[in-house]
Design a protein that fits this description.
The protein is mostly helical and 338 residues long. The chain is built from 19 helices and no strands.
């Protein structure tokens, strides 16, 4: 009798497996429909039901991981992908794990899984791109350049590659090379404000201030980021266009009044315009924010001399010396002779 039962059970196994597979496929199909409708949480519930039938089903685990990524639930996505990987390692799963870890800013894990994916396909440009991003974020600029160069070689004319490589060049102070990469990125995809802004930063570093102003202005027309105004104000300052620099600084400080850099530079504008009371007030604000800002003390001292406040000016110049700006002190110390 026992033998007959075992034989019957063995005969039923294929049928039970077929029924299970059919039911899992049904849940997968329903989940995909709900995902298309933007009902990701409902889709997750269907996939979880499917996993009650087969907890190690690689297809369901991977699909559920994909939805967790959409919902930005990266820890849950990693758990699902790793469980799927234990069931059936694939190149795609290694890459998905790498991308998910990259989204979480976990660069060492990203590099680990990219290296695994590269064992399957060492000519996939995306793998080099993502590994380059991680090397860039960990400060390994030379390795990042190697990866971005490889990605560029395998897949020409990708504006993302040029953009990310330009950032590495900027970190390495290769501003001309960064400028060239950003120009290529703009040629391919001209609608991104940051491309113009960073190219403007390169021009500024290369002392091409008028070119920088053009790119900052274009960036503002596309993105209106507050930092664009500060950078353009600095560039206007460099070409002695003080009225326009003042406009940009004022706009920046209206929204971000606690910026020492913008306040200091606006103070310089007011100083050059001989608006000494305004300049004194601005330099005093910088000192409140940065009590060891030697340049702010120096220029406040100079302004106070201009206003006839000799004692206060001398105190600032003395403080300037204590903070290490002896060159500034030597320029102004004769004003403190009685």
């Amino acid at each position: 009798m026992r033998i007959k039962l075992l034989l019957l059970f063995a005969a039923l196994l294929p049928l039970m497996s077929f029924v299970q597979t059919e039911e899992i496929d049904k849940y997968l199909e329903m989940a995909r429909e709900k995902e298309k409708e933007g009902k990701e949480h409902v889709a997750l519930s269907y996939l979880t039901q499917a996993l009650k039938i087969d907890p190690d089903n690689e297809r369901v685990l991977e699909e559920r991981g994909d939805i967790h990524v959409v919902l930005e639930e990266y820890d849950k996505a990693v758990n699902d992908y790793e469980e799927a990987l234990n069931s059936e390692p694939t190149e795609e799963l290694y890459f998905k794990l790498a991308v998910t870890h990259s989204l979480e800013g976990e660069d060492h894990e990203t590099i680990h899984y990219i290296n695994k994916a590269l064992e399957y396909d060492f000519e996939n440009y995306e793998y080099y791109f993502y590994r380059g991003l991680s090397h860039q974020r960990t400060g390994e600029n030379t390795k990042a350049l190697v990866d971005f160069n490889k990605a560029d070689k395998l897949h020409l004319n990708d504006h993302n590659v040029y953009y990310q490589r330009s950032i590495v060049h900027m970190h390495m102070h290769h501003y001309k090379m960064a400028f060239n990469d950003l120009s290529r990125a703009i040629q391919l995809f001209p609608g991104i404000a940051d491309y113009y802004y960073l190219r403007g930063e390169c021009s500024y570093k290369l002392t091409n201030y008028n070119e920088a102003i053009k790119d900052y202005t274009k960036a503002i027309s596309l993105g209106d980021d507050l930092d664009y105004y500060l950078s353009r104000g600095l560039a206007f300052d460099k070409v002695s266009n003080f009225p326009k620099a003042e406009i940009d600084y004022k706009y920046y400080l209206k929204i971000n009044p606690h910026s020492p850099e913008a306040t200091y530079n606006f103070g310089l504008i007011e100083y050059h315009a001989e608006k000494y009371e305004n300049a004194e007030s601005l330099f005093s604000k910088v000192i409140q924010m940065e009590p060891k800002n030697k340049l702010a003390f120096f220029y406040r001292g100079v302004v106070r001399f201009k206003m006839g406040h000799k004692d206060e000016g001398c105190k600032d110049i003395e403080t300037c010396k204590k903070l290490g700006y002896t060159a500034g002190y030597n320029k102004m110390k004769d004003n403190c002779k009685y």
